[in-house]
Structures are given as structure tokens and as C-alpha cells.
Amino acid sequence: MIQTYQVEANNYEDAGIVSQRVKQTLKLMNVPPPILKRIAIACYEGEINLVIHSEGGSISLIMEDSQSIKLKLDDVGPGIADIEQALIPGYSTASREAREFGFGAGMGLVNMKACASAFEISSSPNGTHICMEFRND
Amino acid sequence: MTLKDIITTVQGTPIYVSNEDIYTAEYDGAFASDLMSDVLCYLRETTDNQLLITGLSNMQIIHTATTLDITTILIVRGKPIDENLINGAKKFGVNLFKTDLTMFEACGVLYQAGFHQ
Fold first, then answer.
1. Which of B50, B55, B43, B36 is nearest to B98 (CA)?
2. Taking a C-beta distance cutoff of 8 angstroms, is the pair B27, B9 a contact?
3. Crossing angle, helix B83-92 and helix B59-67, to 10 degrees?
4. Whole-structure pTM over 0.90, yes or no?
5. Which domains does chain B carry?
6. To pair with A118 at 20 to 30 A between CA atoms, which of A5, A129, B2, B98?
7. CA proximity to B39, closest of B3, B76, B68, B78
8. Cβ contact A102–B58 (<8 Å)
9. CB-closest option in A16, A37, A111 to B69
């Protein structure tokens, strides 16, 4: 099963809607609460990142079997200049507007990585691609 | 501490209450922050019933609460609450309260009343 949702850049009002849908879908599929929470947090942080930092993108929920759930985040740029730096807790390039909405603490990617069983990220000026896998471990 | 005692202690007023039974619910602790990423990070592993205390009053507090299965938010500093936020609270079943106390004062009186977690 693959479900893909579009995320609009700078749309702070709707930020979080996709994550709620993803969580609802997984809840209906009886995904256990601890893994459900980890996926919901990672998805929400990812969605916020797309809104704050990208020029728009998508979030795909991929369920290959009941043991493994993946979230794939793809955007169209401008990319992360230094991924290593972006993964340091507290490092942030978020705008003042993003901070007013409660984000931009520099914990987004860190939190996503901590929630996922496996975390892959690649980035270029054409976009950032993140794949997170969540297993019952 | 029950929600009723929490709200009495901070001299809070209800903005949206999903059902009256919530007042007798026991809360294990609270987390106070205006940074939702910090809330998402800190409460990632917890299974306790937590209260979110914040000075923010936008939809992101509802999404953060829903993501973490937090059932109640206390908004501090007497901030004006718009209709959009109330509708969001109703839609996602999150209880909303407000107090005129600052975040520091709200945390202080709760701690003094024995709410230590």
C-alpha cells in the first residue's frame, strides 16, 4: 500500500494535516501505539520541515508488510547545504515566522532520526529526500 | 493531580471541554514550552498522561497534542483565542483551557501544589 500526500510550502495553517491523516490511517490498520507515536512524530516533524524549508513536496506512506512501515519525504529544493550540521541538535535556519508557530528549534531532523528504525537522507539544490523505516523493535 | 485541581490551581477557564468526565482524569505530569519540537522530543517516549502548558495559541499546539496523544492544553498569559483554534480543538477532541498567569507563574503554582513531574 502506498499513499502520497502533497505538502505546500509556507502553508503554516495546514501544516500538520497530512500527519494527522497518516496517523489516522495507521490507527485504523491497528498499528501498535508505541510505533504509531514514533511514526506520527517523525511524519509531523517532516511535514513541518517541508512547509518551513522547501519549495513544496510530498510525503508517502508505504506499507510493504505489517512488520515494516516507511515514510518517504521528497521535496523540490532548495536542499540542505550541510546535512551533518543540520543533524546537530539545536542547529536551525528557520525563519522568524516558523519560530512564531513553535518550530525552528533545530530538533526536527534529530527527532525524526531518533524516531525511525532506519533513516536515510540525501540532498542537493534540486531537493531533499528522506526515507524512514519503522519496525517493531 | 486531577484536571479539576490543576485548573483550580492556575485559576483557569475552559475554552473547549470534550466531555465533563475529563475533570476527574488524573494527570501524571506537565511539559511547558513554546517550542513544539521540544515537546515532540521530550514526550516522545512517555506513556504518562501529560498536560501541555504553552504560550502559543495556533493550530500547531493541537497537532502537537494529537500527535503525542495529549488530551489537554493550558494556554498561559491570557492570550486571545481565535475561532480557528477552538474548531481545531473540537475536531481533534483536545481540551483547551486558558489562564492569565504567565508560564512561570502557572508552573510555579502547580509545583507548589504538589504537581512535580
1. B55
2. no
3. 20
4. yes
5. 3-112 (3.40.1390.20)
6. A5
7. B68
8. yes
9. A37
- Least Cα separation, residue B40 to chain A (angstroms): 7
> Is the pLDDT higher at A105 or at A9?
A9
Q: What confidence tens digit (pLDDT) does each residue in A67-83 have?
A: 889 999 999 989 999 99
Kindly report the length of chain B.
117
Asked if B37 reaches chain A (Cβ–Cβ under 8 Å), the answer is yes
How far are the Cα atoms of A4, A53, B61 from residue B70, in angstroms, in the given order? 27, 27, 10
Reported as a single tens digit per residue, the pLDDT across A27-56 is 999 999 999 999 999 999 999 999 999 999
**What is the C-alpha R_g of chain B?**
13
Query: From the CA of B13, how many Å to the nearest CA of chain A?
Result: 23
Q: Which residue has the cell 491497528?
A: A30
Interface membership of A112 toward B (CB under 8 Å): no
The DSSP line for A13-55 is TTTTHHHHHHHHHHHHTT--HHHHHHHHHHHHHHHHHHHHHSS
The two most distant CA atoms of chain B are separated, in Å, by: 34
ipTM of this model? 0.92
